[in-house]
């Protein structure tokens, strides 16, 4: 009986020690730091193509900090990539509910909406991002809005938005090239040519920029120049889709 009481007493003391230790651990536990660690791991697994472990860590990030915008946004992006659109939207909305002034949340939600062909809602989300006072990725949001406008077949809006992206950040290859292509389509050949010259100076020859020059010089009735750029395209990028388009006369 005495041994039993001693054993029970020892068990009680051990349990008490465990309880005290747990309380101290919980008191010192940093949920945001823990979530950030899981986010970093999740993104690393995504980069390596380990989607299962990525999801495990991103879900844990949200469990550690259910109202933390970065955890919610990152998990939403994962869900979006794997096609779980309803769940992704729920995560984006949660991020915006808890952090309504987070420009990244508005911007990423806009990209999500555009991929769902919800163009008006997407543009509203991009505008909300741009309006946030401490959001500095304005060029990103203008460019995303422009690409979304292109998807919606609104070339005029796309042209204006690409220009705004360049105004905020001149060294943007996507906006520069897409704007030049729109200018070519509208017959603004002089402006487009100048823009493409600047593009090549900053970013070098690219398959899409060379094909754009072929089209521009063809429209400008400069066949020698068109052939010259086509030769550069063939020499530098013989396996590119743009060179195949050139051969098929699909430009």
Topology (SSEs and partners):
Layout (H helix, E strand, L loop, with lengths): L1 H27 L2 H18 L2 H14 L4 H13 L3 H14 L4 H13 L3 H13 L6 H14 L3 H14 L4 H13 L3 H15 L3 H13 L3 H14 L4 H7 L4
Helix pairs in contact: 2-3, 2-4, 3-4, 4-5, 4-6, 5-6, 6-7, 6-8, 7-8, 8-9, 9-10, 10-11, 10-12, 11-12, 12-13, 12-14
Protein name: Pilus assembly protein PilW
Keywords: Repeat, Signal, TPR repeat
InterPro entries: CellSynth/LPSAsmb/PSIAsmb, Pilus_4_PilW, TPR-like_helical_dom_sf, TPR_rpt
Describe the protein's architecture and organization.
The chain is built from 14 helices and no strands.
Question: What's this model, at a glance?
Answer:
This protein is mostly helical.
CATH architecture of the domain at 173-251: Alpha Horseshoe
Helix content: over 70%
Largest sheet: none
Say how many strands there are: 0
Structural class of the secondary structure composition?
Answer: mainly alpha
Q: What Rg is obtained from the alpha carbons, in whole angstroms?
A: 27 Å
Task: State the distance separating the first and last CA atoms.
Answer: 94 Å
| Total number of helices | 14
CATH fold-level name of the domain at 173-251: Serine Threonine Protein Phosphatase 5, Tetratricopeptide repeat
3D shape:
elongated
Instruction: List the uncertain runs.
Output: 1-27
| Helix and strand pattern | HHHHHHHHHHHHHH
Beta-strand residue fraction: under 5%
